[in-house]
Amino acid sequence: HVFMSGVVTGSSAFSSDAENVITRKIETFHPKREEGVVRSGEKELEQYYEIDKCLEFIKRYHKVALQFPDHLLPDSVAVATILKHDSGEEVYILGDTSYGSCCVDETAAEHISANGIIHFGSSCLTKTGRLPVLYIFGKEEVDTT
After folding, report:
1. How far apart are CA 13 and CA 73, in angstroms?
2. How far apart are the first and last CA of the chain?
3. Partners of 120 in the β-ladder
4. pTM for this prediction
5. Cβ-count burial of 25 within 10 angstroms (0-12 exposed, 13-18 middle, 19+ buried)?
6. What is the rounded CA–CA span in Å between residue 72 and residue 62?
7. Residue 85 CB contacts under 8 Å (≥ 6 apart), including other chains
8. Collapsed DSSP state (helix, strand, coil) of residue 8
9. Four-point Cα dihedral 55, 60, 66, 71, nearest 10
10. Region 68-94: what's the mean pLDDT?
């Protein structure tokens, strides 16, 4: 970076070209989709994401942030729609977390004044200090035949 009379030239690690941010395409990897298994039905979503457990948490805390790792983001809108419809509460998807996918992003949740977070996917289970968290690891059906 070159500083000239108070002006920074060059790119910064903390900002992006506005047009690039809006038009950027992000590739996602969804292991279940890669294997040919798609959780497209509401019943499959309810089972995998433990919707009943999520609804109990939402009814207790009302304004809840939903944190998905990148590979589960393709399901996020469908899950949020089910939760909003069945709970009657607003839910918010954290689309760009500040930390790794395994860490609960309390900072992002506080930006929307959330009362709690539902963290989907694997987690490092680092202790949170400000908000209650429900961990949903994903419940796969096991074929025992």
Report:
1. 25
2. 62
3. 136
4. 0.70
5. exposed
6. 23
7. none
8. strand
9. -50
10. 92
